[in-house]
Amino acid sequence: MKPEAATVAPLDIAHIRSQFPVLHQLVNKHPLVYLDNAATTQKPQVVLDALTAYYTGYNSNIHRGVHTLAERATTAFEETRKTAQRFLNAAEPEEVIFTKGCTDGINLVASSFGRSHIQPGDEILISGMEHHSNIVPWQMLCQERGATLRVVPISDAGEMQMEAFDRLLTDKTKLVSVVHASNALGTINPVEEIIRKAHAVGAVVLLDGAQAVSHLEVDVQALDVDFYVMSGHKVYGPTGTGLLYGKRRLLEAMPPYQGGGEMIREVSFEGTTYNDIPFKFEAGTPNISDIVALRYALEWVEQLGKTAIAAHEQQLLQRANTLLQEVPGLRLVGTAAHNVSVVSFVIDGGTSL
Asked: What is the pTM of this model?
């Protein structure tokens, strides 16, 4: 739902802007105005400071050393997991897996859960508004396993056609993977209804939260979603970071995604036993510095408040839509009733976002 701006204290935009060093420059002789947040967000100073603090103060490998720097680095790394648990309201920190981003998280689920659960004749259901990262891994899995990929069409308004969803959702459907909020249209999908209906036929649900987590309150327990992925770089954190939430019972039953490093409990040439979650899915030395800094990005968003962020963005979106409709030859694309702050349009002579 769209927030009621009148009930939310306005943000101090000048103060917020001052926290982003990259914006303190002229581009083409004008102060930089950055509108490409659907692709990646800029980073506030607190995130940059966290990166510097790690490399200048306690750069070390984690989970395997007993010296002071290793203990400090391990503590900082795991603090991010606790923050992520709170950010998504996971039941426990062990349900949070660190990844490189949404693409990595979706591929992890496709490779681990998919290969161990999807059988010939099964079906996977996605929507017509998905990003490549939520299409190609399922195509690859279906080709490998002899399954079928079904696509729910979208309306001219950019909304998922729920009548078609109901028709395509059958007892053959084993997994539903849809975007929470569209990166191109801004559409917020009716994920509660999607999850409820998918569970009714025994299917598990993955939500791609890349464009949702910086705008919307996400409570994975309230949603009862099985898997939820997000990218750190789209919520003011470093690139190469992300989170996969999964229900404990599913993660524990899934085989490892990659081998080596922290995912091992004991290893010999005769065989290997695997670590508990979340470490079972975090092979090798992770992206320690950026994961440490991700915590500060999540806390920065929490301090601003998603309700205040969303209210301000809705004001901008409404003003943008009003002014764009005055441009000759321009037609807005995607006019869903529930959306986040993305504007797509077609204009005579070309297409822009």
From this structure: 0.93
The rounded distance, in Å, linking the Cα atoms of 201 and 164 is 16
Q: Which domains does the chain have, with CATH numbers?
A: 5-39+305-352 (3.90.1150.10), 50-301 (3.40.640.10)
Q: Which amino acid is at 207?
A: L
Using alpha carbons only, give the angle 89, 233, 150 rounded to the nearest 5 degrees: 75
pLDDT digits (tens, 9 = 90+) for 59-114: 999 998 899 999 999 999 999 999 999 999 999 999 999 999 999 999 999 999 99
Lay out the sheet containing 350-352: strands in order across. 330-333, 344-347, 350-352
Taking the C-alpha atoms of residue 82 and residue 90, their distance in angstroms, rounded to an integer, is 9
Contact between residue 41 and residue 329 where contact means Cβ atoms under 8 Å apart: no
State whether the Cα torsion 305-306-307-311 is positive or negative: positive
Q: How far is CA 258 from CA 34, 111, 138, 230, 326, in A?
A: 37, 10, 18, 20, 53
> Are the CB atoms for 105 and 244 separated by under 8 Å?
yes
